[in-house]
């Protein structure tokens, strides 16, 4: 029995059985900041992405709509029950965000790069010319790409003040 167009029409259609995740279940959107960036269309843009990925708590997300640098950081107004402590006064960014189309509930899922090595593999496969140019000057050895443990830093302001004080001497 051969495959026919008629047989294809009689196949059952399976629906997506994935259920919508309610907003207060995860509060994932309150655990990072994402900023649009240029994709790797030039050596500069490609190496900027490498620079982002060299930092702890940073990933790169790409989908059909563009490239984003994502910085893991919990909103200081997110409470333990995943409710917003300033809900009535939340910024427009939060007001327009929809749980129906958020990253957890969206139909389409993009690609996230958590390391320079993952990103370089993508670059090598999808932007060969840029990869070859970047490889000549901006890709460290394999061991350096893996990186070492990322020590947590204290708050920025005290570190900034301490360095400024050193410069004033």
Fill in the keyword field for this structure.
4-stranded antiparallel beta sheet, 169 residues
Give a written overview of the molecule.
The termini are far apart. The chain has helices at residues 5-10, 23-26, 43-53, 92-96, 116-126, 128-138, 142-146, 156-168, and strands at residues 32-37, 58-63, 66-72, 111-113. Strands 1-3-2-4 form a four-stranded antiparallel β-sheet. A hairpin with a 2-residue loop joins strand 2 and strand 3 (66-72). The mean pLDDT is 85. By secondary structure, it is α+β, with helices and mostly antiparallel strands. The chain has eight helices and four strands. Helix 5 packs across helix 6. It has one domain.
List the helices and strands and how they pair.
Blueprint: H1 5-10, H2 23-26, E1 32-37, H3 43-53, E2 58-63, E3 66-72, H4 92-96, E4 111-113, H5 116-126, H6 128-138, H7 142-146, H8 156-168
Antiparallel strand pairs: 1-3, 2-3, 2-4
Helix pairs in contact: 3-5, 5-6
Condensed summary:
This protein is α+β, with helices and mostly antiparallel strands and 169 residues long. It is built from eight helices and four strands, in the order H-H-E-H-E-E-H-E-H-H-H-H.
């Amino acid at each position: 029995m051969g495959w026919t167009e008629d047989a294809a029409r009689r196949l059952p259609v399976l629906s997506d059985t994935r259920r919508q995740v309610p907003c207060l279940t995860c509060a994932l959107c309150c655990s990072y900041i994402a900023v649009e960036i240029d994709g790797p269309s030039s050596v500069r843009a490609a190496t900027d992405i490498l620079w982002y990925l060299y930092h702890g708590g940073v990933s790169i997300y790409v989908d059909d709509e563009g490239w984003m640098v994502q910085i893991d950081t919990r909103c200081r107004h997110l409470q333990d029950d995943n409710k917003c402590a300033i809900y009535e006064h939340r910024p427009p960014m939060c007001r327009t965000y929809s749980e129906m189309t958020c990253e957890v509930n969206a139909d389409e899922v993009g690609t996230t790069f958590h390391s320079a090595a993952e990103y370089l593999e993508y670059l090598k496969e999808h932007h060969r010319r840029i990869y070859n140019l970047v490889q000549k000057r901006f890709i460290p050895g394999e061991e350096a790409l893996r990186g070492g443990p990322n020590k947590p830093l204290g708050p920025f302001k005290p570190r900034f003040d301490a360095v400024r004080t050193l410069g004033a001497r």
